[in-house]
Design goal:
This protein is an alpha+beta fold. The chain has 2 domains: 76 residues, Beta-grasp domain (Ubiquitin-like (UB roll), Roll); 76 residues, DNA polymerase, domain 1 (Orthogonal Bundle). It contains 6 helices and 5 strands, in the order E-E-H-E-E-H-E-H-H-H-H. It has a 5-stranded mixed beta sheet, with helices on both faces. Helix 3 crosses helix 6.
Length: 169
């Protein structure tokens, strides 16, 4: 007999409620109950990072967290970072600098990279490689992923500096 729990989440800024077994993995709750399909099930062991989301301000691998543990949480997935008409700066730079090939790992990569740049807005190449170490891509040699993240950081910093100059005037 299953004991379902009333789950409340804020996903990409929208309040969502549903019934689920508390031991159901968060990745499956997102995909199957909420039709949030950006995070992917890659390994079910937390090694690949395809399921990475931001939960209450921290990068987490949603394949290793129970939905009951996430109850009440604020979650951001790749769908919450941009829209098809207005891509997030990371999405645009991954496209521009060929930071993806098959695209399977890309949602987790971009979600983690967004948190990385929030934590360190001016990373070095070494910082990016270390910060992204928990996300695996089986198609690329990572160089274009790193280049995409560094380009996004430069663009974000240039935009911020432009706003600072405008505010000072």
């Amino acid at each position: 007999m299953s004991d379902k729990m009333h789950i409340k989440l804020t996903v990409n800024g929208e309040g969502r409620e549903f019934l689920a077994e508390p031991r159901e993995l968060l990745i499956y709750a997102l995909r199957e109950h909420l039709n949030i399909t950006g995070p992917h099930v890659g390994c079910d062991t937390s090694h690949c990072g395809a399921c990475t989301v931001t939960l209450n301000g921290k990068s987490v691998k949603s394949c290793t967290m129970f939905v009951g543990q996430a109850n009440g949480a604020d979650i951001t997935t790749v769908e919450g970072l941009g829209t098809p008409d207005a891509l997030h700066v990371l999405q645009e730079n991954f496209r521009e600098h060929h930071g993806l090939q098959c695209g399977f790992c890309t949602p987790g990569m971009i979600t983690r990279a967004a948190k990385l740049l929030e934590e360190n807005p001016t990373p070095t190449e070494e910082d990016v490689r270390f910060g992204m170490a928990g996300n695996i891509c089986r198609c690329t040699g990572y160089q274009n992923i790193v280049k995409s993240i560094l380009a996004a950081a430069d663009e974000m910093n240039s935009a911020e500096q432009g706003q600072t100059v405008e505010a000072a005037e």
